TrEMBL record, chain A:
The chain crosses the membrane at residues 12-31, 38-56, 62-82, 89-110, 151-172, 205-230, 242-267, 279-298. It is found in: Cell membrane. This is Branched-chain amino acid ABC transporter permease. It comes from the Bacteria. Keywords: Cell membrane, Membrane, Transmembrane, Transmembrane helix.
Automatic annotation (TrEMBL), chain B:
Keywords: Amino-acid transport, Cell inner membrane, Cell membrane, Membrane, Transmembrane, Transmembrane helix, Transport. The chain crosses the membrane at residues 6-33, 63-82, 94-116, 136-160, 194-215, 227-251, 263-280. Its main location: membrane. This is Branched-chain amino acid ABC transporter permease. It comes from Paenisporosarcina macmurdoensis. It is found in: Cell membrane.
Automatic annotation (TrEMBL), chain C:
GO terms for molecular function: ATP binding. It comes from Paenisporosarcina macmurdoensis. Residues 3-250 form the ABC transporter domain. This is ABC transporter ATP-binding protein. Pfam families: ABC_tran, BCA_ABC_TP_C. Keywords: ATP-binding, Nucleotide-binding, Transport. The keyword Nucleotide-binding applies. InterPro entries: AAA+_ATPase, ABC_AA/LPS_Transport, ABC_transporter-like_ATP-bd, ABC_transporter-like_CS, BCA_ABC_TP_C, P-loop_NTPase.
UniProtKB/TrEMBL annotation, chain D:
It comes from Paenisporosarcina macmurdoensis. GO terms for molecular function: ATP binding. PANTHER family: HIGH-AFFINITY BRANCHED-CHAIN AMINO ACID TRANSPORT ATP-BINDING PROTEIN LIVF. Keywords: Amino-acid transport, ATP-binding, Nucleotide-binding, Transport. This is ABC transporter ATP-binding protein. Belongs to the ABC transporter superfamily.
Length: 326, 294, 257, 236, 358
């Protein structure tokens, strides 16, 4: 029963959804202070390579590797974020896209370390390492009537879900606080925000760095879920994919990025039956989306509506007296 | 070798410049980066292949056909992917970026579906005509590309800065509502611009096909990225900047191969723009319009 | 003395927007800055808040020089402004706008915000309390949850004032607050600014509505072509022939109009 | 000349105009008054073609012009000086003026530009400055001058005196008189109700998307409802 | 119970089995995936007609992306009826999928993955594609001997696993042979202008140009080189070997030397029959990818027949034992790692077609 439910295929997709959600949040965070960064694929690569190299060559435990990967990406975030302050709008977008490309080219050319296009194989696999640990402690998959790869992916997924819940909680709280308000103010009017005493340099670099850190974190996790990385994983297409998560799902609210990441990961699978036309359909969906719902699927009013629906369902007996001023 | 490499660089740069002109025109008027421009360029190249290699018709027919097809594509792009977003409330400035990415994905896969994934040769006797100067071979196509790019740049910059239509275009670029109040038919202005930009892409497509004898569905992407880099380099919406940026990049790429490490060729474009943006955030030729706290 | 401007000059390329302007503002007064269009009034605000660096000259605020300090630090020190073309955070609610105004009077960072430490909670409570109070003051209490963009024009102007007050300034700079208001609304604004003054805030005001300025201000400086033309009490200014010629216009002018 | 009948205009779901009807006679100055948010700007924009009414019609010189584009209307002779000036900020003052004459093909353009520059000397002085860097009041002058260059039959002015120095305000009202005497019809939105009623022949007062009062301008000046709501307590 | 041999064996003793195929069917490299699946399908009809084993193919698209290759692999592996995997197309994808297959104990065989180290990933991992480490030295040795070459220039695509690992072999081999490497130039995917690199190479005047490129780019490189007046022979890797080179580059393709497991003009009935059938079915000449795929399914069929049941472990053991199986590529065996043992043929393009290089 459990064995049927836990199809590794589905677990695998769910894990990718979780990683993509982190990427979605990473671009959302920078966007929330009004900066469009297309460099997150590059930061993701930095995180992935850092963690992979550390775990391969120095036998650093995966957890430490992932954390260091995220930190290194974060440091790059600061280094790029500061000069990027001078840019805005599309200029920033293209410059960060360019940063991503430069990073990829470095991965390709720095062969002595990165193995170039051949990529790094034999990256310790998160699930398999965990599996080794638990079996060493005497756990047998048969005890739950599960197969090895089911257990492996189940553990990966569980870990990723926990991480995601924490991150979403973290950023929702941040958003509701003084820091989140400063981001939003900068996004809406930088000059006015500055006049209100907001240190725009600090907050812009902060949000840029948070985005980079998250992207690096997702990249490091990616490396240990795929067990193999190559420069092509962090190229233009990835940057665009991450952007689409947020814009398709809705770039105003964190839930948009989450929904977008989940939906856009499932979509190619759902369209597998018509795989020949898959990408064409993908393109058409993007065009239609923008024409009919340019703010993305999930926006503030959608969330309000959703809340109302839930309240309505739950509490018809309390009445739904919501005051309206306008 | 230096001379030959210079010729290589100028040829490549001129092509970059024509592609960038299309980008810059659309950006200048709509403030939009048309991510589908590279793919329109690619379709132009394919039309060239179809007309000359498959149908065996003369080159000028290919040019006309490519211009016609890409112009129609431009029209459709405007109607389907851009116009519905315009003037709508709550549309983020990212929306057109995404919808043109949608178009680019669609076009790339469509052409892949129709023409297959491989390279198509662009065999044309005109492309074979060459001049021999000492040990250096120059192809007429190379000269043609250079001349066309310069001519296009001159025509466009004259058109934009001196003619009434050009002014209308700039007014439209700045503020749709105001322009229409001043009597500009903004819808037509925009459509015309996107069509012209697309046709420029078509021309560039054929020229690339001839110069390098290679046409494939993926060529749009790398050319598109370079085009982006160039308009940043030259200053967005600046015609002369696009030309200068194109030539600069073509030469820089060639020279890094000739005297440096060809592995970093693709990075040159972006390293340059990162450096330039840090020194001059508005690009080499962009105007600095610092905003006051009003 | 709250603010002292010493020989401020500001050039934009060939255009000199301000030439050698000096004046002092005393604590608690409402000080008017008037002059023809393009005289350099808004530029003066931009210089005081360091949005523009002056070409030359020095600014003293509460006995301390503030030349060359970053604009957000200036707000920290106690100068806050409104804009000639309203610049609210248009997608935020009214309350959130004022909360942002309180930014520089609070300190909690990312971690304390996320983990809601005790000091963060008290601080947040305080900020909210101040914000509600200010909305009450400007008469927007019942609009707390309205998106700023949807407010009527006059309300937006008042919200801008509340937002600026949230930073607890000693000096408030108002750039044409009465522009686009009808006379009833202007009267309300008059009351509001008086109340602000009673809170101990010094006000520097740019305005073209002369009856309003003359009634409200304690002292006035007139700029013309970037230079100081006159300074004095409303009476003195109203009767200054130079000012009449350059700016106010004579009675006949008014008759024609 | 202009006849607006029962227009209702929406911003998305928000209804800003709830059936506005008004009429402007040839050669007259008509003013439209009302508190902030009453719908004055919306009315002007609807007439100028920037907004499309859901119901109702706009007629100009006997022709139904409802739903036409602004550029078409300009050709028919309707020009709007919008609220907030709408200067082309990346174009020079001169280019802004040239754009004002965009739809004209006659040979007097140069002369006319000279003429408005004389009316507003500062524009001549700053003809090469970028529009966006002008001071607020300078921008307002440029906007009016630009509209005049289109030689309209009907000029729509949305708060032309906003942000202008008293002297210039006086100038603007003087100019409105001149415009009228040169045969151009004017529809004027103003906060400065008293001044507006002084130059106008006829007036309408709006409140929350409806016309609530109309009448001859001199009668409105005396109307107690208006005196209380719009002319303030001040007796000056 | 789905793995019992009761189901997988028909009453008459034939083995019935499902095999999963992961192929690159959409996106820029789809041409490879198409050729490969064509090869599979052609073999499938023949095998099922013969009737020793009955195979059903479940074909999935990976779009050339690791994540998608991995997810479809999971999908296929979680179907207990599927006893083996064929593919994926790219070595990058294989690097991700193979460890997973190995962990789950399902045999996986690459038909186009030529990078070093793949069969060594695990004991369930096989390949029948000729690795660069066999192909390139063979071609290089013959070319150097024939041209009496002393100096070479190397040109390769550095952002692609396939061409990069081909280059690694090329460089190593050239060094081993004591050749003087005048320059090493790189290019990137999607590039259409190679003039800068070629001008540099022309200036150095090498005896041979070693090019590790996929045929798409390779053909264009040759075209531009010949136009520029470079007329020395090119030595290419596995990916350069395709009839498409002649179609794209025309006369400029003359002088390309490659080593290949596959020679379509070979005077052998088996080969000729395959070529004929393939052309009838798909309207194009088969390339090595189609041929390798075609043989790969025969290898699987042989394995299943020898295993006698549709069981993953039994199939693995049977595959490892395969020796001297006759295919269109020649005699085929696996070595101890599961890698291919085979003697490549060296070909040259002459007079507009591939010919044996003597
Ligand atoms: N960035 C700039 N570049 C060039 N000139 C400028 C710039 N900013 C302002 N100016 C010029 O400086 C002068 C002063 O402008 P400012 O905005 O301070 O006027 P103001 O007194 O506020 O006028 P108003 O009452 O019309 O708002 C004007 O002539 C204006 O054109
Ligand atoms: N873009 C918009 N979106 C939504 N509502 C709008 C928009 N513009 C105006 N409104 C609303 O329409 C109503 C009428 O606005 P309008 O601008 O026409 O008023 P007005 O009389 O010109 O006021 P003011 O004196 O402030 O210029 C107001 O309630 C306003 O909030
Ligand atoms: Mg001002
Ligand atoms: Mg209005």
């Amino acid at each position: 029963m459990l064995a049927e439910l836990l199809n590794p295929y589905h677990l695998q997709i769910a894990s990718f959804i979780m990683i993509n959600i982190i990427l979605g949040i990473s671009i959302y965070i920078t966007l929330s202070s009004g900066q469009l960064s297309l460099g997150n694929a590059g930061f993701m690569g930095i995180g992935a390579y850092t963690s992979a190299l550390l775990t391969i060559h120095f036998e650093v435990p995966i957890i430490i590797g992932v954390i260091l990967g995220a930190l290194v990406a974060g440091i790059f975030g600061i280094l790029i974020g500061i000069p990027a302050l001078r840019l805005s709008g599309v200029y920033l977008a293209i410059a960060t896209l360019g940063f991503g490309e430069v990073i990829r080219v470095i991965f390709v050319n720095w062969e002595s370390v990165t193995q170039g296009a051949v990529g790094l194989s034999g990256v310790p696999h998160l699930g398999r390492e965990l599996f080794k640990t638990v079996t060493a402690m005497g756990f047998e998959p048969e005890m739950l009537g599960l197969r090895n790869n089911q257990v492996v992916y189940l553990m990966v997924l569980t870990l990723l879900v926990v991480i995601n819940i924490f991150l979403v909680w973290f950023f929702i709280r941040q958003n509701k606080s003084r820091v989140g308000r400063a981001f939003a103010a900068i996004k809406m009017d930088e000059k006015a925000a500055e006049s209100m005493g907001i240190n725009i340099t600090y907050y812009k670099v902060l949000s840029f760095t948070q985005g980079a850190l998250l992207a690096g974190f997702a990249g490091a996790l990616y490396a240990h879920v795929m067990a193999y990385i190559s420069p092509a994983d962090f190229a233009y297409h990835r940057a665009i994919e991450i952007l689409i998560f947020s814009v398709f799902g809705g770039s105003e609210v964190i839930w948009g990025a989450i929904f977008g990441a989940a939906f856009m990961t499932i979509l190619p699978e759902a369209l597998r039956v018509i795989s020949e036309y898959r990408y064409m359909i993908y393109g058409v969906i993007l065009i239609l989306m923008m024409a009919f719902r340019p703010q993305g699927i999930i926006d503030v009013s959608f969330l309000k509506w959703l809340k109302k629906m839930i309240k309505f369902r739950r509490g018809t007996d309390h009445g739904t007296g919501t005051k309206k001023h306008n | 070798m230096l001379l030959e490499q210079l010729i290589n660089g100028i040829t490549l740069g001129s092509i970059y410049a024509i592609v960038a002109l299309g980008f810059t025109l659309v950006f200048g008027v709509l403030g939009i980066i048309n991510m589908a421009h590279g793919e329109i360029f690619m379709i132009g190249a394919f039309i060239g292949v179809l007309v000359t290699s498959v149908l065996g018709l003369p080159l000028w027919v290919a040019f006309i056909a490519a211009i016609a097809v890409t112009a129609i594509l431009g029209y459709m792009l405007e109607r389907i992917a851009l116009r519905p977003l315009r003037g709508k409330q709550g549309v983020s400035h990212l929306a057109p970026l995404i919808s043109t990415i949608g178009v680019s994905i669609l076009l790339e896969n469509l052409s892949h579906h129709i023409f297959g994934a491989g390279n198509h040769p662009f065999q044309n006797s005109f492309a074979e005509i060459q001049i021999q100067i000492g040990s250096i071979t120059i192809y007429i196509v190379q000269i043609l590309i250079f001349v066309i790019s310069i001519a296009l740049m001159l025509i466009l910059s004259y058109w934009l800065s001196k003619t009434k239509a050009g002014k209308a275009l700039r007014a439209t670029a700045e503020n749709l509502e105001t322009a229409s109040l001043l009597g500009v038919n903004t819808k037509r202005t925009i459509t015309t611009t996107v069509i012209i930009a697309s046709a420029l892409g078509g021309i560039a497509g054929i020229l690339v096909g001839m110069a390098f004898n290679s046409v494939n569905p993926q060529m749009g992407l790398s050319m598109g990225l370079k085009g982006l880099a160039i308009i940043i380099l030259g200053g967005m919406g600046n015609v002369k900047g696009a030309m200068a940026g194109g030539l600069l990049l073509g030469l820089a790429e060639t020279m890094i191969v000739a005297y440096g490490d060809s592995g970093y060729r693709d990075a040159v474009a972006f390293i340059t723009i990162i450096v330039i943006l840090l020194v001059r955030p508005q690009g080499l030729f962009g105007k600095n319009t610092s905003e006051a706290g009003r | 003395m709250v603010l002292e401007l010493k020989n401020i000059t500001k050039n934009f390329g060939g255009i000199s927007a301000l030439t050698d302007v000096s004046f002092k503002i005393n604590k608690g007064e409402i000080f008017g800055l008037i002059g023809p269009n393009g005289a350099g009034k808004t530029t003066m605000f931009n210089v005081i808040t360091n949005m523009f660096l002056p070409t030359s000259g020095e600014i003293n605020f509460l006995g301390e020089t503030i030349s060359g300090i970053k604009p957000h630090k200036i707000t920290d020190k106690g100068i806050c402004r409104t804009f000639q073309n309203i610049r609210l955070f248009s997608q935020m609610t009214v309350l959130e706008n004022v909360l942002v105004g309180g930014h520089c009077r609070s300190t909690s960072g990312v971690l304390s915000s996320v983990f809601r430490t005790k000091s963060q909670r008290t601080e947040e409570e305080n900020t909210r309390k101040v914000a509600t109070e200010l909305l009450e003051l400007v008469g927007l209490s019942s609009y707390e949850d309205v998106i700023a963009e949807n407010l009527a024009y006059g309300q937006q102007r008042r919200l801008e004032i509340a937002r600026a007050l949230a930073s607890n300034p000693s000096l408030l700079l108002l750039d044409e607050p009465a522009a686009g208001m009808n006379e009833t609304e202007t009267d309300n604004l008059f009351e509001l600014i008086k109340k602000v003054q009673q809170r101990g805030v010094t006000v520097l005001l740019i305005e073209h509505d002369m009856p309003f300025v003359m009634k409200l201000c304690d002292r006035i400086t007139v700029l013309n072509f970037g230079k100081k033309l006159a300074e004095g009490t409303p009476e003195e200014i109203q009767n200054n022939p130079d000012v009449i010629e350059a700016y106010l216009g004579s009675e006949e002018d008014d008759q024609i109009a | 000349m202009l006849k607006v009948t029962g227009i209702e205009t929406f911003y998305g779901k928000i209804q800003a105009l709830k059936g506005v009807s008004l009429e402007v006679e040839q050669g007259k100055v008509v003013t439209l008054l009302g508190a902030n948010g009453a719908g004055k700007t919306t009315t002007m924009k609807t007439i100028a073609g920037l907004l499309k009414p859901k119901t109702g019609t706009v007629e100009f010189l006997g022709e139904n012009i409802t739903g036409m584009r602004p550029d078409q209307l300009l050709r028919k002779g309707i020009a709007l000086v919008p609220e907030g000036r709408a200067i082309l900020s990346t174009m020079t003052v001169l280019e802004n003026l040239e754009m004002g004459a965009y739809h004209r093909n006659d040979h007097d353009i140069k002369k006319d530009i000279e003429q408005v520059m004389e009316q507003f000397p500062i524009l001549k002085e700053r003809s090469e400055q970028l529009g966006g860097t002008l001071s607020g009041g300078q921008q307002q002058m440029l906007a009016i001058a630009r509209a005049l260059l289109s030689k309209p039959k009907l000029l729509l002015l949305d708060e032309p005196s906003m942000g202008l120095a008293p002297l210039i305000v006086a100038d603007v009202f003087r100019m409105i008189r001149e415009i009228k005497s040169s045969g151009t019809t004017v529809l004027l939105v103003e906060q400065n109700a008293k001044q507006a009623l002084k130059v106008a022949d006829y007036g309408y007062v709006m409140e929350t998307g409806k016309i609530i009062i109309n009448g001859e301008a001199k009668d409105l000046l005396e109307d107690p409802r208006i005196v209380e709501a719009y002319l303030g307590k001040k007796s000056s | 119970d789905t793995t019992g041999d009761g189901d997988s064996k028909n009453a008459d003793g034939t083995v019935t089995a499902k095999i999963g195929v992961i192929s690159y069917l959409s996106g820029p490299g789809a041409a490879y995936g198409e050729a490969i699946t064509n090869g599979f399908n052609l073999a499938l009809d023949e095998i099922n007609e013969k009737g020793d084993v009955k195979i059903e193919l479940v074909i999935e698209d990976s779009a050339g992306k690791q994540e998608q290759a991995l997810t479809v692999a999971q999908k296929l592996m979680s179907d207990d009826d599927i006893v083996a995997l064929l593919g994926p197309t790219l070595s990058t994808e294989m690097n991700v999928v193979a460890p997973e297959a190995d962990l789950n104990g399902i045999p996986i065989m690459g038909t186009s993955t030529t990078a070093a180290g793949i069969p060594q990933i695990g004991e369930y991992v096989f390949r029948n594609s000729l690795p660069e480490s066999l192909a390139i030295p063979a071609a290089l040795e013959k070319a150097v001997a024939a041209e009496d070459a002393k100096t070479v220039a190397i040109l390769y695509g550095n952002d692609d696993l396939f061409t990069k690992s081909g280059f690694d072999t090329m460089k190593e081999e050239a060094e081993n042979m004591g050749l003087d490497i005048l320059t090493i130039e790189t290019f990137q995917k999607g590039q259409s202008d190679y003039n800068a690199q070629l001008t540099k190479i022309k200036d150095l005047n090498p005896d041979l140009i070693l090019a590790s490129a996929l045929y798409n780019e390779g053909a264009v490189i040759m075209d531009q080189a010949r136009k520029m007046g470079i007329d020395v022979p090119f030595v290419g890797g596995n990916g350069f070997n395709s009839p498409q080179v002649i179609e794209i580059a025309g006369d400029a393709a003359e002088g390309l030397i490659v080593a290949t497991p596959w020679f379509g003009d070979k005077d052998e009935p088996k080969v000729q029959e395959f070529v004929k059938k393939y052309e009838e079915e798909y309207g194009a000449k088969p390339d090595q990818f189609a041929a390798q795929a075609y043989d790969a399914l025969y290898i699987m069929a042989e394995g299943l027949k020898n295993a006698g049941e549709a069981d993953r472990d039994a199939l693995r053991d049977a595959l490892a034992e395969i020796k001297d199986l006759d295919g269109v590529l020649g005699k085929f065996s696996f070595d101890k790692d599961g890698d291919v043992v085979m003697e490549p043929t060296v070909l040259v393009i002459k007079e507009g077609k591939f010919q044996l290089f003597e």
